[in-house]
Amino acid sequence: MSAADAAPAALSRHRSINRGSSIGLLLVAMPVFLLAWLIIFPIFSAVVDTILVLGPDGATEVSLASCRFFFTDRYSLGNLWLTLWTTAVCGGLLLAIGLPIALYLRFSQGQLAAYVQALAIFPMFVPSIILAYALIRTIGPNGTVDLLLNAVGLPKLRTPYLTPWGPVIGLVWDNLPLTVLMLTAGLSSVSNSAIEAARDVGARPLRVFVSIILPRMGNSLLVTASFAVLGIFSAFTLPYVLGPASPEMMGPFMQRTFADMNDPLNAMTQAVITFGFCLLFGIFYVRSIAKNREARA
């Protein structure tokens, strides 16, 4: 091809690339706009409204009184501590339960593995309110478990309903399907040849897991833990229905402060503080993903 023919071809490719880039930007413009309108703008608006308040003379002034009240109020700190405790316990239980299931699904075949996968994913299709009602009827006072224990002459179950363990059970059940799916997807990067090579040199299952499987799914564990933390920390329905009235998790606490106590400023402050903790987890997740991409590049 001569230089005279190559120049129009290069110009045509350049125009095609520019056209494709413009189409791509148009495709993502609406989701980005909705994200900015429905999420980012309300966040900044809540932060500003928490800091800027009306003074005695009617003028707007900067005040951190609501934040100081939150971090000096024992009841508010107790609710925050319960939320952090519930999030940590649920995150640990999700990994402890979901990882063995994901390992079994990754390295097992047959009808039984299909049944296990179906059971693990089933909670994804059950609404939270129905799940809460089912748990109340099962492990609540005079529930199914109590009736079965009474039928065989055993003492009644000390129900976790309306205790801090009630939301833990519900949130673990509710978040288990996503945890299993994400861990199973992460295990797909572990090749069978590497595992077979380790077994050929005499490596036991625990050594294979620690030396081969675990290092290759560190990113999946991080993503799974981040999604679990963000979802559990901001949960509302299950803590509201299954949890105790005092202390309570931040979701029900915000709703009660806003609706029952008619105190929108403190409710907004609680929301901003909750978002701050979630932001810390989000920053940790984004930085870890960025470092992982740089390492692979």
- Strand fraction equals under 5%
Give a count of the beta strands, DSSP E runs of length 2 or more. 2
Q: If you consult CATH, what is the topology?
A: MetI-like fold
Main sheet: strand order: 1-2
Task: Draw up the topology in text.
Layout: H1 3-51, E1 52-54, E2 60-62, H2 65-72, H3 74-107, H4 111-121, H5 128-139, H6 144-151, H7 165-187, H8 192-200, H9 205-216, H10 218-233, H11 237-242, H12 250-260, H13 264-296
Antiparallel strand pairs: 1-2
What features would you describe in this structure?
With 297 residues, the chain is mainly alpha-helical. It has one domain (74-296): MetI-like fold. It is built from 13 helices and two strands, in the order H-E-E-H-H-H-H-H-H-H-H-H-H-H-H. A hairpin with a 5-residue loop joins strand 1 and strand 2 (60-62). The two termini are 35 Å apart.
